[in-house]
Amino acid sequence: MDAGEGERARTALLLVDVINDMDFPGSDELVRQAEPMARRLAALKTRALAAGIPAIYINDNFGKWRSDFRHLVDHCTNDDVPGREVARILRPSEDDYFVLKPKHSAFFDTTLDTLLEYLETDTVILTGIAGNICVLFSANDAYMRDLRLYVPSDCTVSNTKTENDYALNQMRTVLKADTTSSEALNLECLARGDDRDLASSTRGGQNL
Asked: pTM for the full model?
């Protein structure tokens, strides 16, 4: 989706690699965790859009340099792949933004910086797969850009819970991310770019 006139958003919801076929050896545990996470993230996305917070899908091209995001969505939602249910739950709409990334971080060699600058975004809610790899790398780059960072602890998964908890702790302690659960986030305040009024969310939350 192209940013249109008047589209400004102090806060944006970033969904990293959720459109993912997860078709690799040993993905069973990740898929088991990702399906309930996807339902929580879908609920968060619905609330975010109602509050005026746009959703930005940031996805690997998985080495398919002649493909695009729409082909990836079609593959993940229609083909018999392990990640199909997750992709179906989180299928993007025509009003969502999308960015393709070549490497782990949502920011590296992508248009995300330009899009966030255009939207005048200074706060990101970072979610997705995998918490200890692409989400962590993206959180690091968001922190270096002085973006306010929220990483809801129930909206990211890794291959194991231990790896995910470790990554969340790193983001909370090193990158100063708020890891409050998605249900506790006051999205109306975040949409206004005013987290001083967040009675239900404390920066650096420890809900792991």
From this structure: 0.89
